[in-house]
Amino acid sequence: MSVSTLAGTTWVINSTPVISSFDSYGINFTSNSNSYDRLALDSISIYYLYFGGEDFPSRADEAYSGSSWGNTNYRTIEIIDGTDVTNATLIAWLEANAEQQLPDIDYLTTSSELTSVANAIRIKGGTSASLVYPAGFVTAISNIPGATPTQTKSVEYTSNDTYTITPDAGYALSRVSVTVNVSGGGNPTFTIDGVTYQFDSSTTYWYDWVYSNYAPSGSSIESTPQGAPYVHIGGTPSNYGISGQYPGDAIVANNSYTTTAIYQPTDLTGTTWYFDGSLHTPFDNDNYTISFTSNNASYTGLVLDGYSMRYSNPGTTNTAYGPQSGPPDWTNSAYRTIAFSGSQPSGSDADNPSLYAFISSNATQI
To answer: Which of 72, 228, 257, 298 measures 20 to 30 Å from 309, CA to CA?
Structure first.
């Protein structure tokens, strides 16, 4: 935005300003701890002059010549007033060859407003540390890990072929719905994140409640329902050998069918989550090996035991959620944020579908 007057403004002139003509302007300004009352442009040079009402200057400094400054401090000029502070040509030259330094404006805020901002930063960053404004806020925000944006995809296959489902550039898959509609039989195959699935007339499929997927018979799957909806395969259920409605029940496809498979990734590596205020208890008794941080500490294990959830290290265990002289609750609200490390040790449960099911059903990814 163009200024209307140069009075009271400060400018830092570019290291190599463009000077194409001779011009002289009457402005009172300071630079390099000296006072001047005229700025002159002379083809390849910039002169700072002080006349003090006399016919000849008592001070004449060649601030810039050719391609270099006599002193880098000359690049900064603080304009006070003068007859040419509204000169459009001078204003245009400065705006093209210098950067105006805007004053530091003081804004009023309240301690409660700062606390609300700090609390939002702590939740997002998984910390309970005290944040000192402004440097502490800046540091905490810069330490918050970024996340790859996710997308869902829905596809339908009506012919026998091999398909690969991939996210668009810059995205990760969060959910994929695959509908297979092949009349007269066939073996359509699709691959998601390197895992291949195939529907045919002879394979028995098992529905996995935990991460909403189909897996070939004999695969290792979770045996505890986690609330995923039961999938209805096209046609009358009795025609497809469906018995019951829990994991482990056989779903047999025939030669003419329409069916839908839902894929949802289970890898927690590099993700950050914010737990609900109340968790779904009782928990299964499980001990997961996984690296993560919470409440400004690093851990290598997450332990579920009835009504308690603990964060552990060798020789150290902290109860994050559990009975508190009454119903289970958080021992510290900072434990509600959990950031899984981007690099996991060998044997980690980062891609364990049971752990993913527990996290995703009790927390929101942030």
So the answer is: 228
Domain ranges across the chain: 10-100, 111-142, 150-263, 272-365
Q: What does R_g of the chain's alpha carbons equal in angstroms?
A: 34
d(CA 170, CA 281) in angstroms, rounded, equals 37
Tell which residue, 223, 238, 261, 252, has the closest CA to residue 353: 223
CA-wise closest residue to 357 among 226, 264, 269, 263 = 226
Q: What pTM does this model have? A: 0.40
**N- to C-terminal Cα separation, the chain:** 38
CA-to-CA distance for 22 and 312, rounded, in angstroms?
75
What CA–CA distance (Å, rounded) separates 285 from 215? 25
Nearest to residue 252, comparing CAs of 244, 242, 263, 260?
242
CA 230 to chain CA centroid, Å, is 33
Q: What is the mean pLDDT of each run of 10 residues along the chain (366 residues)?
A: 87 92 92 94 90 86 90 94 94 93 80 84 78 85 71 67 70 64 53 54 34 34 28 28 30 34 66 88 86 90 90 89 83 91 82 83 85
